[in-house]
Amino acid sequence: MSIWFTEKQTQSFGITGKINQILENEKTEYQQLDMLETEQFGNMLLLDNMVMTTEKDEFVYHEMIAHVPLFTHPSPKKVLIVGGGDGGTVREVLKHSSVEKVTQVEIDNKVVEYSKKHLPHISSSFGDSRTELIIGDGFDHIIKSNNKYDVILVDSTEPVGPAAGLFTKGFYAGIAKALKEDGIFVAQTDNPWFKAELIRNAIRDTKEIFPIARLYTCNIPTYPSGMWTFTIGSKKYDPLDVDPNRISDINGQYYTPELHQASFVLPKFVQNLCK
């Protein structure tokens, strides 16, 4: 008998994968957490029945959320990650030699615990001396910070449950205050096929707070529709002005100097969301 998991991406559409075994199944203080061993994508982390990451395709998301802003900023030293308890974003951030400290604020310690256990390649940098892991509320941390970070990365789940407040204009305004005068932030902002209004709101709010606001995309097969967006807000540096020759080899599998520029080339229907 085969076991299959379906993430219902809308009420009438989903993506399905064959499961070899269920590794973890727990209702944490904040959300439903499942760790599955899938036949196609290796170990897979689910939160509230939504795919967060898999062993096979995780590099796309983590490289794109980290390297686009970190190569846009000329000398990022202090970086904040909100969410991202699997550890993949930390791993990519630490590939930048200028980074002196990464502070990660994850609300659910169980995400960190089970990622260390079942996703060791993704969570491999939690023990790095430059990493500070705080189990707490990222929204509160942002509000209490002032002129502190060069780059802030919002590596959140969907806008439900504990992550709902991370998609508000008030949160983006708090990020602007927590950033230094030339700071940059990036937030994952879902997909344009099913969450067009979310993207429209995110880019509009970012434009009202930051002098430079742009949207970029990548392809992640286990995420809804496969097409994923990130919203970047910058106080000074435009990601489109980055010299490709300044982008060093990060030993990645997706991000390249050419892709840095190309990821900002949007299909017309996505361009329309940014107006």
From TrEMBL:
A molecular-function term among this protein's GO annotations: spermidine synthase activity
Transferase is among the record's keywords: yes
Active-site residue list: 155 (proton acceptor)
InterPro entries: PABS, PABS_CS, SAM-dependent_MTases_sf, Spermi_synthase, Spermidine_synt_N, Spermidine_synt_N_sf
Keywords: Polyamine biosynthesis, Spermidine biosynthesis, Transferase
Pathway(s): Amine and polyamine biosynthesis; spermidine biosynthesis; spermidine from putrescine: step 1/1
Annotated PABS domain residues: 2-235
Function field: Catalyzes the irreversible transfer of a propylamine group from the amino donor S-adenosylmethioninamine (decarboxy-AdoMet) to putrescine (1,4-diaminobutane) to yield spermidine.
HAMAP family attached to this UniProt entry: Spermidine_synth
PANTHER family to which the protein is assigned, alphabetical: SPERMIDINE SYNTHASE, SPERMIDINE/SPERMINE SYNTHASE
Subunit structure: Homodimer or homotetramer.
Family of this protein: Belongs to the spermidine/spermine synthase family.
Protein name as annotated: Polyamine aminopropyltransferase
Protein's organism: Cytobacillus stercorigallinarum
